[in-house]
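sanity check this:
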Amino acid sequence: MGNRDGCRGGLSTHVPGRIDSEVVYEGRVVRLSVDTVRFPDGSEGQLEMIRHVGASAVLPLLGDLLDPDPDVLLVRQYRYASDGYLDEVPAGIPAGPEESWEECAHRELEEETGMRASQMTALTRIYIPHPVLRTR
């Protein structure tokens, strides 16, 4: 069976990824670049990419940790990108390169809610649209 459109057995032989990148803007929290990329089908194109420095978020549970339906503490934040207020978990960026993600989470919880965690457990790493992005 011959190689058709760069595929063998239905799998592409092209390695997708970034070919080149041009930084258009670099700020305190985000960096915007226009990246030239190769797609799995071998075609190439340009994509605008916003890279965020990252943040810690806390899911504060109130009451007994064994409660099957715990109350969750949210904070109401004004977000320019959403044209109003959003209810969110406490979150923020590290105060500097010396602050760990866990220290950042503790600090943000106290700053945004006035509360301290009796214990904190890392749950996961996720990629989410950031509040500075308008996605609707």
Observations:
- Confidence is low (pLDDT under 50) at residues 1-8.
